[in-house]
TrEMBL record:
Residues 223-311 form the Wax synthase domain. It holds the Pfam family MBOAT_2. This is Wax synthase domain-containing protein. One of its GO terms (biological process) is lipid metabolic process. Keywords: Membrane, Transferase, Transmembrane, Transmembrane helix. InterPro entries: Wax_synthase, Wax_synthase_dom. Pathway: Secondary metabolite biosynthesis. GO terms for cellular component: membrane. It comes from Hyaloscypha bicolor E.
């Protein structure tokens, strides 16, 4: 029933699109069921059985093999948070005003909202640093049109950043290790991957928010921006805490919250601050590493490149915290100049460390896949067919 923890590289092909929806549905029902040991064990057994199917086959797509166990872990972690480590009645929506759902339909609506609101928008557990939502005066169709336009722009920016890979050595499975390339090229490709991920997340979010509001199921206020403002980023800590998306914040704080149930750690102390920091990055490293292990095209050495990227981040935050402490002791006050220095340091740091993430994705074949159809590719194809000009391969 349960395969080896480390999947076989030569496993059969099976797409299995039902797995994630099935696991989500089980967790959704588990949230509706009355809290009891029998219900908890039943939901746990079913989710473990469904999760055990993941390493048995490959989807044939590198990115899907990578994301499948990650999505599964996030769903299970969310269910454990809401229904095992806490009681469901600890959570309430602002619109309910502490009204307890009684009918099955009310419970299902409540459960759906709880399990699809990763940042706690409109709930009593909303995470920190979520950007301001659209004003109440925002018209529904204006919001939909704006987000649809944003989705188109994000797509074009993604395609533009993706194009250099399609004409580089990294477009094939036999791609060389990025660290064998020149340092300027390493920096360039690292930045392109970072911007691609940023555009891809915003593209999905803008398209999803436009669709959700257009159907009338949600309001514009339910969809604040998924990212913070770039102008707020003047440190590595600010990048992760204020700018990058907050969808994982609650899940990454679970280990610390669990530990403090049994070990008294006073909040506000250095021990509390850095225990939370390192546990959060250890958790996200573990989640992404399990996704990497499910890829038949990757290796243990290659997977460690991704782990290195994540685990270097708390080290950098610790270093910059110490530098800020020394600067304050020396009487240096925050100013435009100090923020500019911090922004430059952050840019250099991510340009350097993103190379490890790029190495992982390139060596595992993810960068060789076309996730979305390329407008640039199609445009160059039209040029070649209708004017005799160069096509994609000739440029």
């Amino acid at each position: 029933m349960f395969p080896s923890f480390v999947p076989d590289k030569a496993r059969p092909l099976a797409t299995r699109p039902h797995l994630i929806p099935s696991i989500f549905l089980v967790c959704l029902v588990g949230t509706v069921l009355p809290p009891s040991l029998a219900n908890t064990l039943s939901v746990s057994a079913i989710t473990l059985y469904l999760s055990a199917q993941i390493p048995k086959a490959t989807s044939g797509k590198f990115a899907q093999d990578y994301m499948l166990p990650i999505q599964t872990l996030l769903l299970i972690t969310q269910w454990l948070d809401f229904c095992v480590l806490h009681l469901p009645d600890e959570f309430s929506r602002d619109e309910d005003k502490e009204k307890i759902p009684k009918t099955w339909w009310e419970k299902l609506s409540w459960s759906w909202s709880l399990n699809t609101t990763y940042r706690g928008i409109g709930w009593n557990w909303k995470v920190k640093n979520v950007p301001e939502a659209a004003p109440l005066s925002t018209k529904k169709w204006k919001f939909v049109a704006t987000e649809a336009l944003k989705a188109c722009i994000w797509y074009l920016l993604y395609d533009l950043c993706r194009y250099p890979f399609t004409v580089s050595l990294y477009k094939s499975m036999s791609a060389p290790d990025i660290f064998s390339d020149s340092l300027p090229k390493q920096a360039f490709f690292a930045l392109m991957v970072g911007i691609m991920n940023y555009c891809a997340l915003n593209l999905q979010y803008s398209a999803g928010s436009a669709l959700a509001v257009a159907t009338g199921l949600y309001t514009p206020q339910d969809w604040p921006p998924i990212m913070g403002r770039l102008s707020d980023v003047s440190s590595v800590r600010a990048f992760w805490g204020k700018f990058w998306h907050q969808n994982l914040r609650r899940k990454l704080t679970l280990p610390f919250n669990l530990i403090t149930k049994y070990i008294p750690i006073r909040h506000g102390t250095l021990v509390s601050r850095y225990t939370q920091l390192y546990l959060a990055f250890i958790t996200t490293t573990a989640i992404h590493h399990i996704g990497a292990m499910n890829m038949p095209t990757s290796s243990n050495a290659n997977n460690l490149s991704q782990a290195a990227f994540f685990m270097l981040q708390p080290a950098a935050i610790t270093l910059e915290d110490f530098v800020v402490y020394l600067a304050k002791k020396a009487g240096v006050k925050e100013s435009r100049f100090t923020r500019a220095i911090g922004s430059a340091w952050t840019f250099v740091w991510f340009t350097y460390t993103l190379r490890f993430a790029v190495a992982f994705f390139a060596n595992s074949g993810v960068l060789s896949e076309e996730v979305l159809p390329s407008a640039i590719h199609e445009a160059l194809g039209l040029i070649k067919r209708h004017s005799g000009g160069p096509g994609l391969e000739e440029l």
